[in-house]
Design goal:
CATH superfamily of the largest domain: YVTN repeat-like/Quinoprotein amine dehydrogenase
Distance between the termini: 37 Å
Structural class: alpha+beta
Number of helices: 7
Oligomer: single chain
CATH architecture of the largest domain: 7 Propeller
Largest sheet: 8 strands, mixed
């Protein structure tokens, strides 16, 4: 007589065995019987599996998992005789995060298009959760979290002929329209006397008007941007940085950061804001030496981060980034520095290319990091350098070249934007031929670099990861007239590609049946 000795084992031993099984296999095992399902339905077990498989649970995945759990609970209430326990939340996290990773690897997505009413006048602002577009007097907003993309507001607003919109900021559920105008009534944005004002609208309440901030200095003297749902105002005249929290009642000032007058020229586009630090690149006066200023948000204290090697005064820090207590600064396309924000000491610096100060003026400089990896520029403009946070070179990423009938017509391909969410990277490249420019969006799974890290410490070679092009579109001539006219956003489940004629979006969580002839994605 055959006996099932597995049934004799205590639940604690079985759970220990289950912890050694990959999540996908454990999902199948949990369907074999009620006991296995209930034993495998452990929050600690699935949390460990998520960690072992290098899955990162974003707010979007957590939000959908919470909603899914509510629907399952309602279904269970309709069937009170069911002996199955409600699935634990980490199990749903795993299923959804694994599905997104597999779909990104398979280029399996559901796509949509939001056309512009007036492409030549469209200005778009976007965050991970919301998107706002203004075209002349038409204002629209969308919610990006949850299923698909949902229109949440449409209205018309009064626009003066002397005003123009130079940017749209989105923080939490508030869209902020940034207007610029000449104090004499003219629209000349290049006039030294230009001024600006801010108008806020509720993206969750049909774009209802909330408040207005007037009498701000012009764009030449006051830089305004948004990061981590905070508004940053850099006053170049008074050399004061103010960090504000947007609320429905108005902008709430949280802290003002100062520096000695005429001490450092601030480079506005290089700032990084976290809960602990505000970091900004610049050059010392009058030495013209490139430096990075680092303020501690809690107390407002400031320290200057400098190079530990001679630096040409014509170079400058193009990008900064912060991870924990580590501050990173990209010196042109030439060298990457990493400082300890507590001691202000250089932890390491890595030479990335042999570019001279004037060589990279037409090339994009970018720096992106998440988890344990740092992605930045490469000697080859169409490649991506991948480093560990402690400066170990792990390898590079390159896309499969664009297939052309006449290979001799290719001029060059250049990485212009890199976004990292968890262990997924989204690259935007522009490939130029003699007669056209093509924008390529490339996705790459970064987990092979995690496996490479230990091998690199043991002296093995770096790797070169080949990434597939997921999305392509031609770059319209209007795109080439201004920086940022075509750009990409990735919020961990959706890629939003903002183009001249409209906004394309690609959903990797709610894919529908895009490939009916292909075997369904197992997760």
């Amino acid at each position: 007589m055959n006996e099932d000795y597995f049934e004799w084992l205590p639940a604690e031993i079985i759970e220990r065995i289950f912890s050694l099984i990959p999540g996908r296999s454990l999902g199948w095992i949990s369907l074999t019987c009620t006991r296995n399902y209930n034993i495998a339905n452990s929050a600690g077990l699935w949390t460990k599996i998520i960690e072992n498989e290098n899955l990162v649970i974003s707010d979007h995945i957590d939000n959908y998992a919470q909603n899914l759990l509510q629907h399952i609970q309602q279904a269970k209430e309709r069937d009170p005789e069911s002996r199955l326990e409600l699935p634990v939340l980490p199990k749903l996290w795993y299923i959804l995060a694994k599905k997104v990773r597999l779909n990104i690897g398979r280029n399996n997505y559901k796509e949509g298009l939001i056309p512009h009413f007036s492409p030549e006048n469209a200005v778009v602002g976007i965050s991970d959760d919301y998107m706002v577009s203004i075209e002349k007097d038409k204002l629209r907003s969308w919610r990006l979290k949850g299923k698909w993309i949902e229109l949440t507001g449409y209205t018309t607003i009064d626009v003066s002929p002397s005003q123009y919109v130079y940017q749209v900021l989105v923080a939490k559920n508030i869209g902020i329209i940034c207007w610029s105008f000449n104090e004499l009534g003219g629209p000349g944005e290049n006039d030294q006397r230009n001024c600006q004002s801010l108008q806020a609208f509720d993206t969750e309440d049909n774009c209802n008007f909330l408040w207005e901030r007037k009498r701000l200095l012009g764009t030449k003297h006051q830089f305004i941007s948004c990061q981590n749902d905070k508004i940053v105002m850099i006053d170049k005249i008074r050399e004061i940085i103010e960090i504000l929290r947007p609320e429905k009642e108005g902008l709430i000032s949280e802290i003002k950061l100062e520096q000695p007058r005429h001490y450092m020229r601030m480079l506005n586009s290089t700032f990084t804001l976290t809960d602990k630090y505000f970091v900004l690149g610049g050059t010392l006066v009058p030495e013209n030496v490139p430096v990075v200023s680092c303020w501690r948000i809690a107390c407002g204290s400031r320290q200057i981060l400098t190079s530990n090697r001679p630096v040409c005064p014509f170079r400058s820090f193009k990008k900064t980034a912060v991870r924990g207590n580590l501050v990173f600064g990209l010196l042109n396309r030439f060298r990457l520095f990493c400082w300890d924000a507590i001691t202000s000491q250089v932890k390491y610096s890595v030479d990335l290319s042999t570019a001279s100060p004037g060589d990279d003026e037409a090339s994009a400089a970018w720096l992106s990091l998440d988890q344990e990896l740092v992605l930045t520029v490469h000697q080859n403009e169409s490649y991506v350098t991948v480093l560990s946070q402690d400066g170990i070179h792990l390898g590079s990423i390159r896309q499969i070249p664009l297939q052309l009938e006449d290979e001799s017509s290719m001029v060059k391909s250049c990485v212009e934007q890199v976004i990292v969410r968890g262990y997924t990277a989204v690259l935007r490249l522009v490939s130029e031929t003699i007669d056209q420019s093509v924008c390529e969006i490339v996705t790459a799974d970064l987990t092979p670099f995690i496996d490479t890290l230990q091998r690199r410490r043991n002296g093995e070679n770096a790797i070169s990861l080949i990434a597939y092009v997921s999305i392509t579109h031609n770059v319209d001539p209007i795109d080439q007239h201004g920086a940022g006219a075509c750009y990409t956003v990735f919020n961990s489940t959706k890629i939003v590609d903002i183009q001249t004629l409209g906004i394309k979006f690609y959903d990797f969580l709610f894919t529908g049946n895009r490939f009916p002839d292909r075997e369904p994605c197992q997760h």
